[in-house]
């Protein structure tokens, strides 16, 4: 089956099911240009979909981001922000004025892997393929998608210090919430196929 075939199945489901239509109504208004461009919203979506592990969502939003002008490296940069944040455990997170992320995880207790993890996180978040404010907005949205309030707040504040508009962060959060619901929506493809 092709991605387009799946898109067509979901469109039919939206026409037939008030549940799928309700998801589309939730989603529809959050993709237009605003404080974040539509392209950047789809980059946020790719990163948030890494949290939900929704392969359909990742591919769908990567395709749209590409169509809107994003390069492969930009889409990968967004995805790897999630990979970096996956390594941050429940310890304290500090983002310095220089942008360096410092974390201490009680579970790692100064083990060599903690140093390696901090190097990985700072390499990913310091990589300039995406503008700093967008990297931080993506990280804040991923924190929301992961339901990690400390993570979200640390990157929210760092984004504001870096010059991000509050509205851009709000738009990123809306995308993250749509993606959380969208993972279930995408998995209804299996239900639609079972009844085809």
From TrEMBL:
Pfam families: CMD. InterPro entries: AhpD-like, AhpD_core, CMD-like. Residues 21-84 form the Carboxymuconolactone decarboxylase-like domain. Transmembrane segments: none annotated. GO terms for molecular function: peroxiredoxin activity. NCBIfam families: ahpD_dom. This is Carboxymuconolactone decarboxylase-like domain-containing protein. It comes from Acerihabitans arboris.
């Amino acid at each position: 089956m092709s991605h387009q075939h799946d898109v067509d199945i979901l469109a039919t489901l939206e026409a037939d099911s008030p549940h799928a239509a309700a998801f589309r109504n939730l989603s529809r208004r959050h993709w237009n240009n605003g404080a974040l461009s539509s392209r950047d919203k789809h980059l946020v979506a790719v990163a948030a979909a890494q949290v939900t592990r929704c392969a359909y969502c990742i591919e769908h939003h990567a395709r749209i981001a590409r169509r809107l002008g994003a390069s492969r490296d930009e889409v990968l940069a967004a995805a790897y922000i999630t990979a970096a944040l996956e390594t941050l455990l429940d310890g304290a997170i500090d983002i310095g004025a220089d942008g360096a992320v410092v974390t201490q995880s009680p579970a790692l207790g100064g083990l060599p892997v903690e140093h390696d993890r901090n190097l990985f996180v700072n390499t990913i978040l310091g990589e300039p393929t995406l503008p700093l404010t967008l990297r931080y907005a993506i990280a804040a949205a991923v924190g929301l998608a992961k339901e990690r309030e400390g993570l979200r707040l640390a990157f929210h504040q760092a984004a504001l210090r870096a010059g991000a508009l509050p509205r851009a962060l709000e738009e990123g959060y809306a995308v993250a919430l749509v993606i959380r619901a969208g993972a279930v929506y995408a998995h209804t493809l299996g239900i639609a196929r079972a009844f085809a």
